[in-house]
Amino acid sequence: MAETNLILLGPPGAGKGTQAERLQQDFSLAHISTGDMLRAQVANGTELGQAAKRYMDAGELVPDEVILGMISARITEQDAREGFLLDGFPRNSSQADALAATLAESQRRLTGALALEVPDEEIVRRLSGRRVCLKAGHVYHVELDPPKHEGVCDQDGSRLIQRDDDKEDTIRKRLEVYAEQTAPLIDYYEQAGLLRRFDGTRDPNEVHNHIRATVATLRMEDRL
Ligand code: AP5
Fold it and tell me: Is residue 15 within 6 Å of ligand 1 at its C-beta?
């Protein structure tokens, strides 16, 4: 079967990570989150992590050269050869062009770009209540999606923390950066015939069912 290569687009807090966890299991895709990769570098105290943290804490994009090096290596790893789900990448038009060039070089292509749509005020509410687990980044919300035991991850028992960039000022800055640099990619992928839009304000299970059905159709069309 042809590989399934997807992009999840949407503002910070739209639910990309929440949906990626589920879709990864449905379709056996490698979940590639540039945010998670950068946070792992920060946690390990690497030089790259130290350089990236300044941008992340300020709500700015990390420079393209750092991100492009990470991604081009990651999408050629064995688990991603059979299909990948990009979460948080690309984030501007030069990253989108670089992705297209990298895929074309190895005769690979995108199956679809899945855009989650959520208004700004809902995003601020979601991100200020978000908690993530220390071990694997599993995502919760103190009111909307609480863990069974406060402060503890249901899946691996590790401690839940608040991300450094989930403070209101930084959230607003991230929204500005999204509107200026990332939102134009919606048109970019629409013109390429790859865009599918989803109402990200629905319950996470409803959003998931809708995306799963769309991806199943895209895969079927790809086989015809
Ligand atoms: P990154 O980690 O990619 O953050 P982001 O895009 O801002 O997205 P988030 O992880 O904040 O949100 P999400 O959409 O995954 O939502 P989630 O599912 O967690 O990037 C962080 C930083 O790294 C960037 O600011 C930048 O500095 C740098 N960076 C990363 N990639 C880069 C790149 N390519 N280039 C340059 N720099 C880069 O959900 C949020 C909350 O809402 C949770 O609490 C969840 O439980 C809840 N929730 C989810 N879905 C629903 C729903 N349907 N209804 C109600 N609640 C919901």
Answer: yes
pLDDT band at 222 (very low <50, low <70, confident <90, very high): confident
- Per-state percent for the chain, helix, strand, coil, to nearest 5: 50, 15, 30
pLDDT in tens, 43-78: 999 999 999 999 999 999 999 999 999 999 999 999
CATH architecture assigned to 4-119+178-223? 3-Layer(aba) Sandwich (3.40)
Whether this prediction's pTM lies above 0.85 is answered by yes
Find out whether the beta carbon of 11 lies less than 6 Å from any atom of ligand 1: no
User: Where would I find the beta strands (DSSP E) of the chain?
Assistant: 4-9, 30-33, 83-87, 112-117, 130-133, 139-141, 160-161, 195-199
> Residue 123, CB half-sphere, CA atoms under 13 Å: how many?
23
Domain extents in the chain: 4-119+178-223
Q: Which residue has the tokens 């450094």?
A: 164
